[in-house]
Design brief:
By secondary structure, the chain is mainly beta. The protein has one helix at about 105-115, and strands spanning about 15-20, 25-35, 40-55, 65-70, 80-85, 90-95, 100, 105, 145-150, 160. β7 (about 100) and β8 (about 105) form a beta hairpin.
């Protein structure tokens, strides 16, 4: 009797930030890991970059996404898939209290401080601001595809080109 061998595949979920990518059918995700330095006895942030397949094109640059490793590599470099967009860029919510955060402070704390010290006309009003994506192709060009530009043509400067140096 031949024994059938069954291998278990562990699925790993990781949290990362979407960064600009040159690949057409994949998104580039930056994952931060803490690396321990035995000489200094402290942890330092180390970044790892992986490519994840995103068939629905849900994530944009700056979004915090949840990714999962694939049982088999799709290509030589695509090893993960995007499961969910946890936080769109700028809409971070504290998981314990459920309150929205801006640069490490709660929005309601910012509003209370503004009432205490006097509200300025130039203060950004988060409640009246349009949703992300409403200014797409008008002022927000993060949805455009970027490409590598190798020549130094100053007359044809393209804002979507990325200099590889």
């Amino acid at each position: 009797m031949a024994a059938s061998t069954v291998t278990k595949q562990t699925l790993t979920y990781l949290l990362g930030v979407c960064v600009p990518s040159f690949k057409r059918n994949a998104t580039k995700i930056r994952i931060s890991r803490m690396d321990f330095d035995e000489y200094l006895l402290t942890y330092f942030t180390k970044y790892e970059f992986v490519y994840a397949v995103d068939p629905e094109k849900r994530c944009k640059t700056g979004d915090t996404v949840l990714i999962q490793n694939l049982p088999e590599k799709l290509t030589r470099i695509i090893t993960h898939k995007v499961v969910d967009v946890v936080f769109p860029l700028g809409d971070i919510v504290d998981p314990i209290s459920g309150k929205t955060i801006v640069a490490g402070k709660y929005r309601e704390t910012i509003y209370k401080d503004a009432k205490l010290y006097g509200e300025l006309d130039s203060m950004y009003k988060y409640d009246e601001a349009p949703q992300r994506g409403s200014m797409e192709n008008k002022r927000d060009f993060s949805s455009r595809k970027t490409y590598v530009k190798y020549d130094k043509d100053l007359q044809n400067s393209d804002p979507y080109a990325v200099n590889p140096r």
